[in-house]
Amino acid sequence: MPASTVFAAQLLAWRWYYSEAIRQENPYLRHLAIQKVVLFSCRIVLTENEVLYPYHKWLLRVVASAPSPARRVRVLTRAGAHERHP
Question: What is the total count of domains within the chain?
Fold first, then answer.
């Protein structure tokens, strides 16, 4: 099974967790789900560009410099970074 398929499955699962966090008004799960959605979105971009995963510290920088980063990931990471914390 290709790695991008595994990451896509994780992305879909964490999107569902996010929707459940909103429905249940659970801030812990909401923040965790946002982090995971960003992580697995970035992992898909890295896999499609055949770039090694740099771990969390450099992830957004490496994704931004990938040969063909997805526009949606850039928008998503900005949205996750700017979410207000209570």
Answer: 1
